[in-house]
Amino acid sequence: MQQHTHRYHLRKAIQAAFLLMALGSTSMVLMPTALAEDYAKPATTSYQIKSGPLEQALSEFARLSGISITLPPALVDGKTSSSLSGNYTIQQGFETLLTETGLQAIETSKGVFSLQKSLPVTKGQADMQTMKEVQVVGNSDQGAEIATGPVKGYVAKRSATATKTDTPIIETPQSISVVTADQMRNLNAQSLQDALGYTSGLASGTVAMNPAIADSFYLRGFQADSEFGSYYRDGMRFMSNIYNGKQEPYGLERIEVLKGPSSVLYGAAAPGGIINTVSKRPQATPMREVNAEVGSFDRKQLSADFTGSLNDDETLLYRLTSLVRKSDTYIDHSQDDRIYIAPALTWRPTDHTSLTLLASYQRMRNSDPGTLPVAGTLQANPNGKISRGRYLGEPDHDTYDNTTTTIGYLFEHAFSDQLRVRHGVRSYHSELNFEYFLMGGWADTAQRRLNRQARLFEDDTSIFTTDTNLEYKLQTGFVQHTLLGGVDYTKSKHASDRERGNLATIDVYNPVYGAAFNTLPWRQFRTNQDRTGFYLQDQMKIADKWVVLLGGRQDEVRLESLSLHSPADNTNEKERAFTARAGLVYLAENGLAPYFSYSESFEPTSGRDRQDARFKPTEGKQYEIGVRYQPPESNIMLTAAVYELTRKNVLTPDPTDSTFSIQTGEARSHGLELEAKTRIGENFNLIAAYNYTDARITKSNIAAEVDSRLSGIPYHAASAWLDYKLDGWGLSGLLVGGGVRYVAEKPGNAANSILAVPDYTLFDARVSYDLGSWRYTMNAFNLADREYIPSVCLTGVTGCNYAAGRTINVSASYRW
């Protein structure tokens, strides 16, 4: 009966998903036919512009094409243009009008161009025209998109996260979603949760940590965050525990989500996948922007991003990204302040060598709003509903003060057309002072006064990580091989000194603050971990039709855990694991690319069983079948995938002695994911995503758990975002956009006192207007002001969290 029910849910999920896609955009259904050919062609406009003064010709060109052009008088005075007659793209039109003027037009933002002097073509740039295989690309503005560079629009075509090589996404036999800087900008993403809100396969919000101070997700049914080794920056491990804070989206070029087990290239990690963020890096084309933003909850923010060349031959490039914010939040007596500074420098002494230095400083001064009782939020309370913004701690003792610094480099050198080396190093350090409260049970039978606990701790985390690999390309008959071999190493240290104490009770419905906040030393932890992995991979492209991917990795993890308050609990363990991956892709000429893959992961498991044997690593195994559709030369990427993901060696109570555990537990997740990203013409962008996830406990020595759903994982989640530039309506520079996000009910787990939460639907919107080098924007989140609980609730001391209500931010940006 249960199996029949599962099949029924999956069948209904597939029907609902395809209906969603069809309703989202009729063009998506028509795309595989003749319309795809039109979208692959750049838009042209008919012009009849006579030769004459350059300023007059460019003004007419801007009017007819619907773009904006910054015209410094000193550059155009006395210059004349060639005539322009016929159908041209914008690029062709500029090339014709600016012939022999010594000027060029640079697109500084979508539809906004700046007139600048033409840069001389250096010998290095000329060589790049004929030596693209040897070129070490540090900037996508030198040509086509590269795996770590910027993307114009929402549709990325290349990625390095899945293979550690610059590979077309359509040739990758594993699901991967890429969120570009343009998408983050248009969504006005303030966190990874915001940025990934329109991505399939993810569910945000966990009971482990408040989302105000940490990024945390479920990915394909399993928790994915820094605690589980799920976060990477520039391909190297980033953060090591849940207290390391949040990442600043403004400092990112892209966010890439690799779904499913990924240990074959990255080592120990949860089976759901990894999230790799890519830092903004120096670009040769000058770009300078300054942004000012105000919004709900007294939000005030300034940010700036500058990049360009420091010398004429473009061998030395720079970038400086910065942000400062002062803001309250929807919770009473709370703050969300941040300072972020990220300088970067690239040195390219030759066309074959690149060295990029990356550093960052981030300080978060936030509040932990704590939680609210279940009675009064998720369930009824005789005293009424508890306010969404209610804070039940002590305002003078509510501090999350986190400072994070990083410094490192990325080096790449091409020895020849076939052989290149990559080497990366980063040092990461995080310091945290954390003062907060924990909710206790009710202090009275009237469910009005609440018991509380005072908590305080200091945390210190340091991580040194390095990754070195060699890539070798060779041809054997009609098979093109891209061989990759490498070694990575991570050393992390975590020190935590914790205190606790009691707090006076508080009236939930009429809080009076000022209680004494006294704490005493409670626990002291010291954790040292060393991870070393050796990996080997072969990407084989056969007759330009088939791609075969094979990979394997050997890992060794050493973990020393010291409990200074209880030395008897000290551990010193070593784990070894081998993981593998295999995949196959077929590349059809029309842009269809069906694929199949098998992948593995592992996670160290601390502790020993009843017979004093050390636990084995937890294992993840996934089978995935999918298909992508990307017509040649188009801005379209459609993806569909089905998968079965199993986590084995899960701890479950020992039936002989329940005070011990054994590794006979198992959890399984299977599902369907659909994702679409497309740009139609010059003005219309669409993002749509849907996922059906059935995640369950399949083996456990607790009978009630068997076949129960994993808590917090909804069956269904769907989203769609559309934006449209109204140039064709005579409203040049005006863009309107809107989105909808739906999340089904999140199940609980009665055996663990976890309560389910209802489904919810959210609406977002954006309006922006470009005027020359200026852009004015308004973004709205949760436009309908829906009151909802984003993650499951726990009875007792954990309780529930509300999410923010309607939030509106307004900004002005100047780019030149």
TrEMBL record:
This is Iron complex outermembrane recepter protein. It holds the Pfam family Plug. The keyword DNA damage does not apply. It comes from Methylophilus rhizosphaerae. GO terms for molecular function: siderophore uptake transmembrane transporter activity; signaling receptor activity. One of its GO terms (biological process) is siderophore transport. NCBIfam families: TonB-siderophor. The keyword Lipid biosynthesis does not apply. It is a multi-pass membrane protein. CDD domains: ligand_gated_channel (cd01347). InterPro entries: Beta-barrel_TonB, Beta-barrel_TonB_sf, Plug_dom, Plug_dom_sf, Secretin/TonB_short_N, TonB-dep_rcpt-like, TonB_sidphr_rcpt. Keywords: Cell outer membrane, Ion transport, Iron, Iron transport, Membrane, Receptor, Signal, TonB box, Transmembrane, Transmembrane beta strand, Transport. Residues 67-118 form the Secretin/TonB short N-terminal domain. It is found in: Cell outer membrane. It comes from the Bacteria. Residues 1-36 form the signal peptide. Coiled coil: none annotated. Belongs to the TonB-dependent receptor family. GO terms for cellular component: cell outer membrane.
